[in-house]
Specification:
By secondary structure, the chain is an alpha+beta fold. It is about 45% helix and about 15% strand. It has five helices and four strands, in the order βββαβαααα. It has a four-stranded antiparallel beta sheet with strand order 3-2-1-4, covered by helices on one side. Helix 2 (about 75-90) packs parallel to helix 5 (about 120-130). The longest helix has 21 residues, at about 35-55.
Length: about 140
């Protein structure tokens, strides 16, 4: 089981403040006046990057090793949706086929996969994962 948390590269901006990027994605940038503010904005950027990859129907990159970088974890529902998307891609199952297996309309599956749509129930994600031969596992860890 892979934790969907990505290393964020935090660098001082010559004009003041800090800039954050996610090397695993190769695009996207955010900033903040302080390290704390920049890393807080990084969580929003990460969700935007995940949504862009899903929207473009591209492979979601696996998180690389942290090294000296800060690790930014996805919110639980977004992590579940990203995990479902990765499982769908890895299984080579089309979205239309998953809709058929679940008895859903295409737009319903799109909402389940959309990180920005907060109305998805976690059980819906688990049901979709089970249709792919996977299951959702939830854990508890010490806060960073």
């Amino acid at each position: 089981m892979e934790l969907l948390a990505y290393p964020a590269k935090l660098e001082p901006d010559p004009d003041g403040g800090f800039v954050v990027t996610f090397p695993d994605f190769g695009f996207g940038v955010t900033e903040g006046d302080s390290e704390e503010e920049a890393l807080g904005r990084a969580a929003d950027l990460l969700e935007t990057l995940i949504a862009a990859v899903i929207d473009d129907n591209e492979d979601l990159p696996a998180p690389s090793a942290a090294g000296e970088s800060s690790i930014i974890a996805l919110r639980p529902l977004v992590a579940a949706k990203a995990g479902l998307y990765r499982a769908l891609r890895e299984a080579g199952v089309s979205k239309n086929e998953l809709c058929r297996r679940l008895g859903l309309q295409y737009v319903q599956l799109q909402r389940i996969l959309d990180p920005a749509y907060g109305g998805t129930k976690i059980d819906e994600v688990d049901r979709a994962l089970r249709a792919l031969g996977k299951s959702l596992v939830i854990g508890v860890a010490d806060a960073a």
